[in-house]
Amino acid sequence: ACDLMATAGVQSGDYLLELDTGVDFEAFRLDDATKGVLGNTEYTLGPNTTFADITQFATLISYNRGRRKSDYQFGAGTMQFVMRDETGILGPYDTSSPYYDPANSQPGLAPLRKVRLSREGEYLFVGHVLSYSYEFAQAGPNTVAVECADDFYLLAQTQLDAFNPSAETSGERIATVLALPEVDYQGTTSLDNGTVNLGHDASYDVAAGTNTLTYLQQINQAEQGRLFMSRAGVLTFEPRIGATLSGPIISFSDSGVGAKYQNLEVEFDADNVINRAYVETLDGKTATNSDPASIATYFTQNKSITNSLLHIQSEVDDLAAYLLEPDPEPRYTSVTTWFGSLTSTQRDDVATIDIGDTISIEKTIPGLGTQLGEELAIEGINGVIDVNRGHTVTFYTSPTTIVYQLILNDAVYGQLDALNVLG
Question: Element (H or E) spanning 116, and its range?
Fold first, then answer.
C-alpha cells in the first residue's frame, strides 16, 4: 500500500488503488520451469486476476454508493479518479508499459477490468472500469480520468428470458434471478430470505427482455428493504426496514466529545409526507391506507405502487400501511466529516461504515440550551480523497426506530415494553 496523502502531509491513512491488468501472471503454464510444476499452490490453473498498484499516480478519487433517501431505489455505485501520467506508461499505445498485456496485444488498463480501492486493508469500493479518458498535454504531464461502477452496472446490462417464477420469498426470488443462465451472476452475495412472499401464476410471468436490475428493484419494492452492493463488492439484500437495536458505530458531535463533523444538514420537508398509499398487485389485488388527520393538515400526499409482486392480501394490506409517513419531522439528513479532524480510531470507524449501519449525531441547538441527538441509519455514502486535502466522507441518513437491549434490574432498560428487547 502507498500513502496517497504523503505529499500533503494530511493524516488520512494508507490507501491502495488497484486495477486488473488483464495479465494472469499467477497462472499455471506448461513447459515453464517455475509456473509449470505440477502440484504447486502458487501458480494455479486460474483464471487469476493480477492487480496493478496504481496508487502513486492518483491525485483525486471520489466514490458514491447507495441512495440519498430511503424511498429512492438503489442504483449502481460509482467511482471516478484522476491519474497523473508523467511518462506515458498509463496510455493505451505504450506496448512497453508494465501494464500492457503482450499475450493479447491489449492495454492492461482496459474497460470492464476490475478495480478496487482500500484503506488500511478495508475496501471502500470494488467494481469495474467503464472508461478511460486520456488527455495528452503539450506542456505538462498527461492525465487519465477513469470512470468505474460496481456490479449493479453489469446486472443492468443483462436482460431476462421469459420465465414463470415459483412462489418464493423476496430473497429467494433474487437468488433465482441471479442464477438464471442469462444472468449467471458470479459475484459474492449476502441475501436475507426477506419477509414477504411473491406471486407465481401467469400474472407474474416475466417477459423476455426485462432488464435484470429493474426486476431486482421491483422485488425490493415489494420487500421495502435494502438491495445494494457493499463496500467490498458483495451484493447484499436486507429485509424490510424496521426497528434497529441501538449501537451506533460512531457518534458525531459538535461538543468536543465524539467525532467532529464539518457539515450537518437538517431536512423538514413536505415531500416526506405520505398520508395515502395505494398498492395494486400484478394479479389485481389492491389495498389502500390513509391518515385522515394528516390529510386535513398537509393535504393529500399520495404514494402509489401498481406493479407489486406481492400476492397475499394481508401482505398487500401491510405494505400499504407500511408506506404511510403521516407526520413530517425535522431530522439530520446528512453529515460530512474530514479525516484530518478525527483520531486514528475514529478514521478507522468512519472508513468501515456501510449502508444499513447506524450512527448517532448530536448538535448543540441555539436557543435550546442543550444537545439534540438522533440515531440514524446509513442509506448512502459519498467519499472524496484529494492529494492536497485528504479524505472527506458524507453520509446520507434515514430515520429509524431505535430499540434497546433489555437489561435486568435496570430502571430504564429493564422495563418490558416496545423499546426494550432481548438482544
Answer: strand 114-119
Give the torsion sign (CA, 352, 353, 357, 360).
positive
Distance in angstroms (rounded) separating the CA atoms of residues 188 and 389: 34
Alpha-helix runs per DSSP H in 188-282: 212-223
What are the φ and ψ backbone dihedral angles of 174, each rounded to 5 degrees? Answer: -60, -45
pTM: 0.87
Q: What are phi and psi of 341, to 5 degrees?
A: -100, 0
Q: Are 402 and 413 in contact, with CB atoms under 8 Å apart? A: no
Left, alpha or beta for 278 (phi > 0: left; psi -120 to 50: alpha)? beta
Task: State how far Cα 267 lies from the chain centre.
Answer: 22
Nearest CA to 193 out of 173, 178, 210 is that of 173
Question: Tens of pLDDT along 299-340?
Answer: 999 999 999 999 999 999 999 999 999 998 888 999 999 999
Distance (Å, whole) CA 19 – CA 83:
12
Question: How many residues belong to the chain?
Answer: 423
Give yes or no for a contact between 357 and 377, defined as CB atoms under 8 angstroms apart: yes
Residues 6+ apart with CB under 8 A from 383: 61, 62, 63, 64, 124, 391, 392, 393, 394
* Contact in structure between 221 and 308 (CB atoms under 8 Å): yes
Q: What gap in Å lies between CA 329 and CA 227, rounded to an integer?
A: 26
| Secondary structure tally for the chain: helices H, strands E | 6, 28
Distance CA 391, CA 402 (A): 30
Q: What angle do CA 136, 138, 140 make, to 5 degrees?
A: 85
**Average predicted confidence (pLDDT) for the chain:** 87
Cα distances from 259 to residues 213, 326, 344, 348, 362, in angstroms, run 37, 33, 11, 12, 10
The DSSP output letter for 206 is B
SS3 for 368? coil
The three cell numbers locating residue 58: 492518483
At 1-20, the pLDDT tens digits run 444 544 433 568 999 999 98
pLDDT range class, residue 39, cuts 50, 70, 90: low
Pairing of strands 401-405, 286-290: unpaired
Enter the C-alpha cell of residue 326: 403521516
